[in-house]
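Lab notebook, bench 4. Still working through the backlog of constructs that have no structural model yet. Next entry is a single chain of 416 residues. Request: give me the structure tokens for it.
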Amino acid sequence: MKPPVKVIAAPKPPPPKPTESFIGNDSATMMAEETFEEFEARMKGEEEDALDSTGANPALDRDGDFEDEQDEAADEPQDEEEDDAPALPQKKGRNGKPLDQFGVEWDYVSHEGMGFNDDMDEDAMTFEKNGKSYFKPDWGPLKPSKWVEFWKTSFALEAAMANDDDDEYAAALKKQGFRNRNHWKRVQHTFLRHYGEDPEFTNAALIARQEGSRDAMRNAVKPGMMDPIEGVSLQVFAGISAQQMSVQGPAFVKLLAKHKLDEAKFARVSEQWLARMSDQSDPMASMAIATEYGKAFSGAGVGQFGESAAAASESAGINDKVAGKNVKVGAGSMTFEKFVEVMTAQTCWAQQGKDANQMLKKVFNMNAVDWSNASAMWSQKLGTDVTLVGKFNSLQAKYTAKYSVGVDDPDSDLDV
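Model written out:
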């Protein structure tokens, strides 16, 4: 149920009641032309009249002060379509305060009708009342629950501002639905004020970054870039490549024959696909091809951790929705601590001049394909879960100390 709307009417003559809530709209067009003192006096009078006639709790104390936090927990007064209209039930949030139309608790004065005036209040995001500073929330064209969309908007405007072109930035603001720079500033601070300390809000920023990268890669792909080479699609090439390390000699020749290939043709196809993935004339398009190759490689599901990799591959492509920390987990997946240990060990070995592939086999009984499969799931989770980042840093320090001194054999495999 939408919360009641407190209508601000001009003294003479009263304007028609607005049908929409102040929150999330341009309330400057809905404000009566009166000073704050006039507004306060009129509201005090109206609330006292309501108290005398109905006994309902007013939004303002009898002395005109805004209610304290304890009072704010009470239900807000209802719009009085009729003088004898019964009070409607009001949903409340976790702190016991009423919810607005977006499900956000009414914890700021502006939920009671205080609005913005772009002409007279261009920079102000707060106002003082009785020695207290109140923040003025403004959601603009965004919805409070759409955190990823907020971050996408933020990143798009950051990119426009980076070009140091006022006209371009103004056009970007208009495209995103904001009146001007300060309108966006107020919306930005509103989101940060409400959700800035929530880890999931930060995770939404990471997801927005990934979705933005996938959008850019997808848009960079030009006709023909993903076309098969000598009849061999990227997916077939990736699947054969995933099996190449474990299927060798006559068995590999037999595998190629299933796809009507011989070793010479596969070598040519491989060279051309690798060239497309490393073409620096269009890095974003090359990255798109490499990303789709990685999706197909993991999707082949071969070797150790193959089932886990295949499950994770479903959300790894440029046309897939970012799953983030909710990526599918296949059977037999590697634990997070083991993932960090193997990654850190390889870095240490490379710094010591050791052959990482040989050491990978010796210490962990894994090959490059196994490691790629083990990474398929955790790389997606790590990229969109800030709680894992702290664990990663701690574990990395632990295993850097261990493998930097030449210890080859791991002695633990702890779940986290």
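Notes after review: The two ends are 42 Å apart (CA to CA). The chain has 15 helices and two strands. Flag for follow-up if needed.
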